Amino acid sequence: MEGVDYLRDERSKAQFDVETMKVAWAGSPEAFLVCDRMAKLVANDPVFEKFSKPMLGRKELFKNTLRKTAHAWKLVNDLHLTEEEAKWLRHYIDEPSYTDLQWEMFVPALEGQGTEEQKKKWVPLAKTMQIIGTYAQTELGHGSNVQGLETTATFDRQSDEFVIHSPTLTSSKWWPGGLAKVTTHAIVYARLIIDGHFYGVHGFIVQLRSLEDHSPLPGITLGDIGMKFGHGTYNTMDNGVARFDRVRIPRDQMLMRVSQVTKEGKYMKSNVPRQLGYATMVSVRQTIVSDASKALSRAVCIATRYSAIRRQFGSRDGGPETQVLDYKTQQSRLFPLVASAFAFRFASDWLKLLYTDVKQRLEVNDFSTLPEVHACTAGFKSLTTAATAEGIEECRKLCGGHGYLISSGLPELFAFYVPACTYEGENVVMLLQVARFLVKTVSDLGNKQPVGTAAYLGRASLLVQKNCVVQTAEDWLNPIAILEAFEARAARMAVGCCQRLAEFKSPEEGFAELSSDLAEASLAHCQVIVVSTFIRRLQQDIPGRGVKQALEVLCNVYALFLLHKHQGDFLATGYLTPKQASLANDQLRTLYSKVRPNAIALVDSFNHTDHYLSSVLGRYDGNVYPKLYEAALKDPLNDSDIADGIHQYVQPILKQKLHSSKL
Ligand SMILES: CCCCCCCC/C=C\CCCCCCCCCCCCCCCC(=O)SCCNC(=O)CCNC(=O)[C@H](O)C(C)(C)COP(=O)(O)OP(=O)(O)OC[C@H]1O[C@@H](n2cnc3c(N)ncnc32)[C@H](O)[C@@H]1OP(=O)(O)O
Ligand SMILES: Cc1cc2nc3c(=O)[nH]c(=O)nc-3n(C[C@H](O)[C@H](O)[C@H](O)COP(=O)(O)OP(=O)(O)OC[C@H]3O[C@@H](n4cnc5c(N)ncnc54)[C@H](O)[C@@H]3O)c2cc1C
């Protein structure tokens, strides 16, 4: 049998209806149709070809992306694509471009932090791409600590302008996407100074380049920050550096929803919290969570298909060897990642609802849920990106040696994905934000009943006393038992941290000293939410033959895998006995056997095109080995039998006089 037959055979074993599962994955029949249409549009358009990327130099890579972006923008207009369709188009094109910053950060910053008047002026210009903007917050010397930024915006009362200035080398803006060569404008974050007094960091709309000839405006020095990790992935983007030498902008280009500066130089705070200045980051963190499930589903699709084709050992008489997918070790590394992709998918759908709700509230100045939403987006961003980056690398290893080839699609996917652990809030820094929220919630338990995602902490006093009642491996299939275990562990970790914090001289000293434990408690809290979201999703009506049952198995795999991985926490907090932890692991093995017949069908449900996967190992048809050969033969080194440099550098070594060597 060939790879093609193996996958056909695997597909015939599926115990659920794949077409309905595709809809469950996409979220709705309408969402599925949009994704499917955009995926095919991209896959069938030769401009969006990706296989030549690894061979391109930096300048060609960049220009190639400019060309693709221009073509995509033309399609958006010619085909009258909605914003949702345009986002999927961008997703399937699969190439970081300046438009990411324009649509994910520049426009949301204008919309979230601008006054009505500012929005009226700037948003239409941005949405029609008459101006192209980026988000210039990070500096050479400061990224995570936004309040530590050094760029200054000094108000000049006489001219009614702000003077934007980079006072030091470390104040150079460093990283903003599209800044080096493309963007005409930026939201520049700077310390506001009026009459020598500092008023904190604010956003300012600064024009960077001439709209006529694209040259940098006077006083602004722009450049690229250099090549990044991987080759053909993030190097398509011109992440840039900018220095400002007393650049003047009109007063009305400070984003003034949160606070205003009057013509007279008076600083006025409106009744909105200053954290609203951080709202753009909340918005994009939510997008990043949704991207995590997409990236992880891509990696597991490649690794699962290849694992069904690859055979090793198991036959001593020349018969077929064992599919590596049948090894329990392979299953225990791969299936939790398949389950995680689904878990993150449902978590991101839920987060989107939470975010839509807070956005509507913020518009009418209701800020009550902002701290919870900030904690959720920051925590989920950290949890999902860390697990996805690790998961992609695990999938590469699951594909053995061939996983290391660029043609497997996995090295480039990892290089593209891994900065998500850093950008938009470094992951540990984000967990510490969750920790602040947890500590406040637990410390306030006497006065305030927690709601929403923290509601379970309202039962903390009970959860720290109760013990797990599981007696058999079967008991671990009960969602109530699973959820209580996660809640008890998280509550015990949070309460334990708070008790120890009280032993320090000051809360700041305690927080710094216990920060590792606090980060772990935050992760445990986020896992409660992801697990409970998955469980709640299964309580909804899920049509289709066997679809709900297959998802139930995955939900249990996800939860019990986490329980096994973090069993140290579950045991140390005293909720579980070692016997109960071991029963969970027994159940996990049984669950892997239930996933096995559905493995290929599950990854088919992601509906990924071969274009999007860009992987010889993950091809839908399974025709792996002939295509690996074909891809290898395309390498420029295979253009001729004798490569450049052989005559010059190798032949002289071969022809050296042997008596000169002692070897
Ligand atoms: C080929 C192309 C095709 C083209 C197609 C054309 C068509 C295109 C159409 C559509 C395209 C769509 C594109 C989609 C693409 C999607 C891709 C998405 C990829 C995105 C790429 C992202 C790039 C990355 C960008 C960046 O990285 S920007 C920089 C981000 N920086 C950070 O995140 C900095 C992190 N630091 C912080 O957030 C903060 O400083 C801190 C650490 C959270 C705060 O620290 P500190 O304690 O000092 O806080 P304070 O400032 O004092 O504040 C204290 C209180 O405020 C609370 N707080 C903090 N943050 C927030 C918040 N965000 N919201 C609410 N509250 C917040 C904090 O908890 C404190 O509260 P308290 O009560 O405890 O006091
Ligand atoms: C591909 C990419 C694209 C980017 N695009 C943009 C962009 O468009 N616009 C923009 O403004 N920025 C952008 N950035 C910058 C990005 O937002 C920052 O790099 C990020 O916020 C992390 O900040 P940092 O680099 O200062 O890391 P640091 O904060 O210096 O982190 C270094 C280490 O210190 C630790 N650390 C930091 N603070 C604490 C603390 N309080 N407690 C414990 N540990 C701590 C971190 O955990 C980490 O291990 C981009 C970055 C990348 C990689």
Automatic annotation (TrEMBL):
InterPro entries: ACOX_C_alpha1, Acyl-CoA_ox_N, Acyl-CoA_Oxase/DH_mid-dom_sf, Acyl-CoA_oxidase, Acyl-CoA_oxidase_C, AcylCo_DH-like_C, AcylCoA_DH/ox_N_sf, AcylCoA_DH/oxidase_NM_dom_sf
Acyl-coenzyme A oxidase N-terminal domain residues: 17-132
Annotated Gene Ontology cellular component terms: peroxisome
SUPFAM superfamilies found in the cross-reference section: Acyl-CoA dehydrogenase C-terminal domain-like, Acyl-CoA dehydrogenase NM domain-like
UniProt: FAD binding residues: 138, 177
Domain of life where this protein originates: Eukaryota
Any GO MF annotation of the entry: fatty acid binding
Family, as annotated: Belongs to the acyl-CoA oxidase family.
Protein name: Acyl-coenzyme A oxidase
Organism: Ambrosia artemisiifolia
Phylogenetic classification of the source organism: Eukaryota, Viridiplantae, Streptophyta, Embryophyta, Tracheophyta
